[in-house]
Amino acid sequence: MNGSLGGLVGEVQGARSGIGGHCQGARMAPSILWIALAVTCLKLLLVPSYHSTDFEVHRNWLAITHSLPVKQWYLDETSPWTLDYPPLFAWFQKLLALPAPLVDPLIVDVKKGLEYDAPMAVLYMRATVMLSDVLLFFAVHNYACSLPASKRALAAGAVIFSPGLIMVDHIHFQYNGVLLGLLILSIGLIKSGRDVLGGVLFASLLCSKHLFMVAGPVYFVYLLRHYCRGPRKFVRFVVLAASVLSVIGAAFGPFVYYKQIPQVMLRLFPFGRGLTHAYWAPNAWALYNSADKVMSVVARKMGLRVAERAGALTGGLVGESGGHVVLPEVTPLLTALLVLLSLLPCLVRIWRNPRPSEFLRCVAYSYLCGFMFGWHVHEKAILTAVVPLALLAVESPEEAGRYFFLSTVAHFSLLPLLFEPREYPIKVLLTALYCLATSACLQDHFSGSSDNPQSSEPKTANLMSAKSPDRSEVTSGWPEHDAQVSGGEGTEARKQGLLTWLERGYLIGLVFVELYASWVHPALLGGKLPFLPLMLVSTYCALGIAYAWVLQLRLVARTPSKQSMQ
Amino acid sequence: MFARFLGSLARQNVAVEFVFLLAILVRLLVGLSSYSGAGNPPTFGDYEAQRHWMEITLHTPVREWYSETPQNNLTYWGLDYPPLTAYQSYLHGLFVSAFEPEAVGLESSRGYETPSSKLLMRWTVLLSDVLVFFPAAWWFVRAYYGGRSGTEQAWALSILLLQPASLLVDHGHFQYNCISLGFALAAAAAIIQEYEVVGSVLFCLSLNHKQMSMYLAPAFFAHLLGRSFQKRRPLLHVIKLGVIVIATFAVLWAPYLSSAEAVLQVFSRLAPLKRGLWEDHVANFWCTTSMLPVRAFKWKKRLSVEAAARLAGATTVTACLPFMWNEIRRPSKQGLIRGMLISGLAFFLFSFQVHEKSILLPLLPATMLALDSPWVVQWLAPIAAFSMFPLLVRDGQALTYVASQVLYLLIANPPPSGLGDSCVWFRLAFPASLIGVVVIHLGALFLEPPAQYPYLKAAAMTSYGFVHFVLLVLYLNKKVFTSRTQLERTLEKKES
């Protein structure tokens, strides 16, 4: 960013470099501000787009927290969308509701505001999501400051432009940006050695959305082994425990006082939900369900008598996935044990050697485990693993390849979330542009030329000349542009690209899956077998995410090599 | 930042693809907003006009499209663009009726607006843009900036494709300027590559889509004439181009060539003399000066329509003559585009019956000059969109306007290179002028105008734009006669 605007921006931002006091804020701030403004423009343009029932859910929560006393928050049942997030999130909603009456008092009216979505109300609600994303920008800025200068903007862009976040928060309507911001801020603080503050932030994250609980063991073991050591380890432990418990106490205290804890817990952990959600999140259970379906069909073909269950095959479409026909039933306890088991290698590694530099990976890995094996996982939960991993992608070409693969599959698996024809091209383009931009920028970064961004295209000259003859003639006039091959960390990546041929083939397969699910299937079969497209998407993506999980597991389980010790 | 990002993409050979996809995405996003005259019976707005033309062209015979018939009531959005617009409406009508025939049913579909038909209509604009303007933009960038780096070309392309005023008028307000502007752009690209015949045909297509393309005609005329004089047989060359132009017109007007009466009927629809010197609030000379408290400037009161038309014609021609003279003597590629900019601005400022949307015509050559004079387009595009704000806010597009303006400002910084002209005072004046824009917006948002001046807000916006346009046209005229760009010098050095 050059020119007067950039200068202006630089001055303004230089003044407040934030928590990350070690950062040269002045250099980083203009690019993060640019990214933040650009993404906010896209979000503003998305204001009139489709919003799901989650819009009404959150509007209702704004109304409940604004208009009712705290005592009523978890009791009110005026709307079917009762408050089912932990108390800190309710307070956050109350904060967002404060200025609402100035815009339109109906927004925060518990009774008259039901199903209210006048354009100004939508704008107000959307604006609260955009504004709360400032925490994400700040957290990413804070984290990116710990990276080498050439990697910062890339890491920040990879997180902030995540099409998953844009689709889920700014079209579908949720507040994941601010929550992930809290998570990244906490990880960034722990990475820079501020363990207590990081722990406190994580506790407040848990008190805002309990789905982030999966990383609890990682935090616990890390803080225990990294912070509570040395001669005064007991004192340190007490300090840590006191600060974390005080956050939890502050959040839940009022409800202990009102004797409502059982009611709150009932809301937070509703029983009676199935193993998988309506649209199967692409995890181990999607594979398990598909295997069950295939086996039951095969068994029937072979003449075996299999229990006929209405809706068993349409499990991908209707609410509860009716029980399994061939394979044994899965219980919540089993899923919890599997999650813990899959976390175990990671916990052992942290126990042996808690390293700040590996903390981010461990947290992201734990969310990936939670996604793979958790009970009743929503497809949106993949963002908790993908978004933090974006920050790792800039570390090495291998990391970049792993991130690109996982993020592409994950974002693809989120596409069915937006099903209206108007948003169809928008969601596809958002995802395609992100894939194009991340793959090109990561590839370019590891080709070694990005440390010198001003000298443009050493490679274009070569590659383009092979493609179009007139371009070579054109570029030959600029001697400084001619091949200036610099080696460095990524020569290998440059030779073979970020992905293996198998990974590439799989990702190209996504295009065919999408073509089938959105075009061929409706054209050929019309309304028949309506579950098939979603089942196909979910199963195919589950393979990719399982593969990505195995890669992460191998990294976490591997004995640390000498190189990574440094 | 954007230029650096494009640099990364260009090194991986995906910059152009990225810019095209981004441009499509932004168009779709702008299209989510409301459009001109949405839910506003009985006459609605431009959206209804375009839909109505689809209905008329689809269901009535070609000969009757421009005439008053029982089925074609000309007082209700009668067709008032040349035949290519009518053919385009016919094609789009076919497209829409393939999915939702009720949307273009004869008579029955007046004021038809459903979410699905809105989507279809938006898609007709998007497809026209992608099929006409996008290739034209790429052709032009390759033809004119072929010697520049991939980053610079991609940046020039993104300026052409993401300039906010066109986005908002075509994909928000609802029009098909992308077609006429796209043909004009392709014509310039062809002529730059010395395909003069092709260029002439393309420019005739542009003229036959919207007569407003005439704003750019003096530049094409002067450039082609100047080029002809450099040929061995100038007269023959001029005649050749003349024949091509006439032939193109003849083909496009073929259904109406049966009688002079039929031609005149179409013609009378295209030149609505009755509608006065300007419309609504326009940032041009006549509208702005008439607001001054000087009796001599109360044009609409003092001049008859004919006298106003004559005066407007004379001033426009006078404003165009200097650059035309220069271009005829020394035609150059850059002279063509600069000429388009000057004549576009001259027509916008002085000609008869100007709409606020006509600023798109000078804006096109300004965006074409993106790498030659980056500061011109960096400045002109946001000001042009600003001068249309009264119109946009009526359409319910204030939010879309803010987002696309900021997005444009974020990408408008050119890639670092020493090849464009620089403008020293730009660095100071540009932020100051943007602050002025913000101040006027805030004032309009929070203050109410006094009762005796109900149009003060719109007047402030258009006058602010007017000052910028006048300064720019004066500066450009000076530039035409004094300097060559560094690029020209570099290229000359290379050639010698």
TrEMBL record, chain A:
Residues 449-465 have a biased composition (Polar residues). Its EC number is 2.4.1.-. Its main location: endoplasmic reticulum. One of its GO terms (molecular function) is dolichyl pyrophosphate Glc1Man9GlcNAc2 alpha-1,3-glucosyltransferase activity. The chain crosses the membrane at residues 32-51, 173-190, 196-222, 234-258, 333-351, 505-525, 531-557. It is an enzyme of class 2 (transferase). This is Alpha-1,3-glucosyltransferase. It comes from Klebsormidium nitens (Green alga). The lineage of its organism: Eukaryota, Viridiplantae, Streptophyta, Klebsormidiophyceae, Klebsormidiales.
TrEMBL record, chain B:
Pathway: Protein modification; protein glycosylation. The lineage of its organism: Eukaryota, Viridiplantae, Streptophyta, Klebsormidiophyceae, Klebsormidiales. Its main location: endoplasmic reticulum. InterPro entries: Glyco_trans_ALG6/ALG8. This is Alpha-1,3-glucosyltransferase. One of its GO terms (molecular function) is dolichyl pyrophosphate Man9GlcNAc2 alpha-1,3-glucosyltransferase activity. It comes from the Eukaryota. It is an enzyme of class 2 (transferase). The keyword Transmembrane applies. It is found in: Endoplasmic reticulum membrane. GO terms for cellular component: endoplasmic reticulum membrane. GO terms for biological process: dolichol-linked oligosaccharide biosynthetic process. Its EC number is 2.4.1.-. Keywords: Endoplasmic reticulum, Glycosyltransferase, Membrane, Transferase, Transmembrane, Transmembrane helix.
